[in-house]
Amino acid sequence: MTAATWWVIFRISRWALWLGTIACYSFFMADRDSHLDQFGHLLITTEVWMFGLPLAAIFMGFFEMMMRERAGLPRPTFSRVMHPQDWPSPKSDPTASDKF
Hints:
The protein has 100 residues and is an all-alpha fold. 56% of the residues lie in helices and 0% in strands.
């Protein structure tokens, strides 16, 4: 797989993890009592999901940035849409690597 393919995979993973985080927080707000013990503390599983999902999303963002640089894709700028036909081809860029 090319670096651009890995970039897309990491990008989709990042957004999926953020959506999972929102779903987890919504579920917590809807049914708070099932996530607390008798002393009002968070259960360890709830804590892992509430802090692990956003942390994983942040690391996916780091991997996404790494693969964007490796693929030679331009950095996004404010108010500019990046179309796939505008991407440089990996064969024309000698610094782009097909390895992960």
